[in-house]
Amino acid sequence: MPPVACLFDAYGTLFDVAGAARAAAALPGAGRLAEVWPRLAEDWRGRQLDYSWLRAAMGRHADFATVTADALDWALAAHGIADTALRARLLALYDCLPAYPEAAATLAALAARGLPCAILSNGTPAMLRAATRASGLAGHLADILSVETAGVFKPAPAVYAMGAARFGGDPARILFVSANGWDAAAAAAFGFRAVWVNRAGAPPERLPGTPAATIPDLAALPGLLDRL
């Protein structure tokens, strides 16, 4: 049966999470950030995910804005940067991350096929609204679903259940697209037809759940529809 909707992860899938550090490093007066921004962006993202999983395991939920700020504080300290103005600039830039170049065209192509698209993300509603507006993707989306409704981060099944409920309740009729291998695996284990956007050419995750397909970028997604 054809899918009835396509759910997208946001950060790393539609939005380039390195964009904030890259943009800040290009501004005058960037100082040490200009030298270390690729590694800092990687550390920031790594700690952001670690803190989301650890808070879920601890039963100590905080929203993604808090987790993102805490992870940035760790990354700045790890690189010996103590600059409150830079911290504020990076967090502001995170709210307007750039979309990947192929994201808008991919969403438009899916909509033209009659497939509604939505976001299912760890981000807060405010973060996701800001990012979709800034990137120009808002008009391509049927809905924006945040884990804050469930009160727990991915890969908790309760998060994927939100997406299934929004579009009829049958996970097997929903595509789920993520550039995070662990997210695609967890979505597949839940029952979605998961597609992994493996931009880095990483090996498959050793986790329950196997994505139905792996693609190098979002541009390849519309061509998969008849084969999923």
Commentary on this structure:
This protein is 44% helix and 11% strand. The mean pLDDT is 97. It has 2 domains: 5-15 and 98-227, Rossmann fold, CATH 3.40.50; 19-94, Orthogonal Bundle (DNA polymerase, domain 1), CATH 1.10.150.240. It has 8 helices and 6 strands. Strand 4, helix 8 and strand 5 (193-197) form a beta-alpha-beta unit. The protein starts with a strand and ends in a 13-residue tail after the last strand. The protein is of the alpha/beta class. Strands 3-2-1-4-5-6 form a 6-stranded parallel β-sheet, with helices on both faces. It is globular, with a radius of gyration of 17 Å.
Major beta-sheet overview: 6 strands, parallel
Radius of gyration, in angstroms, nearest whole number: 17 Å
CATH architecture of the largest domain: 3-Layer(aba) Sandwich
Distance between the termini: 9 Å
Percent strand: 5-15%
Quick one: overall form?
A: globular
- Return the CATH topology of the largest domain: Rossmann fold
Instruction: Output the CATH homologous superfamily of the largest domain.
Output: HAD superfamily/HAD-like
How many β-strand runs?
Answer: 6
Task: Tally the helices.
Answer: 8
Report helical residue fraction: 40-55%
Round the mean pLDDT to the nearest integer and report it: 97
